[in-house]
Amino acid sequence: MIKRALRLACYPYFLLALMLAIIPAAATGQVSNGSISGSIADPQGSAVPEATVTATNKATNQELRTTSDNAGLFRLGLVPPGTYRVEVAKPGFRMAVYDSVEVAVGADRALGAVKLEVGEVTASVEVSSALPLVESSEAQITNEFTAANIQTFPGVLENQGLDNLALTVPGVANNRDLGLANINGTTFEVNGIRGRNNDQQIDGQNNNDNSVTGPGLFVSDPEFVQEYQITTSNFSAE
Question: Residue 4's closest CA among 227, 157, 162?
């Protein structure tokens, strides 16, 4: 199975990223993968170094592993999108388990502060994997659409293209025929910046039509899409 990503950016100071994961073989690079990060502390709030963090893909059983540093911080990079079971273990503490951690394309899944309870390492504590109310690991504003909810949007199944999803995001508006219209799909602008400044990518590769606004490759079939992501501000380094 291949994973692809379509990415869109709007410059100069507001950005729009549109990421599409298309089903078929694992692609490499942060643009077509995500990451999991957090910090580990004991009941008194002190950092726990050298704790083992294991993320297991619930669909493929692929395991990714890392350890926390001296400050108790950890980060798993290049994580393929999907649902993961994350286990945090350290001798002398009960294992902390996040059973359903959703990893998105090109975004960091911050678990926040993971508190380990003192006890037998064979015991485990289930931790809620709900997203923190405030995203603290990155400044970008990201909206993600999975294959399941892509199917529910009007205009997509009618073969009008996945770019219609962008119009559901705050700050995005249909600019119709203004500024050399996109002939390959929906014409839109982000936060008042002209549509010609949008940047679109598939798996981190350029997918811009240099003659008009919009994508070079028009994607309309949601059956091939694993994830569609729109970032409207403050791209991360990836």
Answer: 227
Which residues have CB under 8 Å from 17's CB, separation 6+?
Answer: 7, 8, 9, 106, 140, 142, 199, 229, 230, 231, 232, 235
Q: Is the pTM of this model over 0.70?
A: no
Domain boundary among 73, 96, 127: 127
Q: Which domain holds residue 12?
A: 6-28+140-233
Matching residue, tokens 């380094």: 237
Q: How far apart are CA 84 and CA 97, in angstroms?
A: 11
Residue 132 domain-assigned? Answer: no
Q: What does the alpha-carbon distance between residue 198 and residue 186 come to, in Å, rounded to a whole number?
A: 12
Based on the fold, state whether residues 83 and 106 are members of the same structural domain: yes
Let me know if residue 1 belongs to a domain: no
Instruction: For residue range 123-138, list pLDDT tens digits in order.
Output: 778 886 555 555 555 5
Phi-psi region of 181 (alpha: psi -120 to 50; beta: other; left: phi over 0): beta
The distance in angstroms from the start CA to the end CA of the chain is 23
| Total length of the chain | 238
Backbone angles phi, psi at 175, to 5 degrees: -100, 15
Q: Which strand (E) or helix (H) includes residue 30?
A: none
Q: What is the pLDDT of residues 76-119, one digit of tens each?
A: 998 988 899 999 999 999 999 999 898 887 778 889 899 999 98
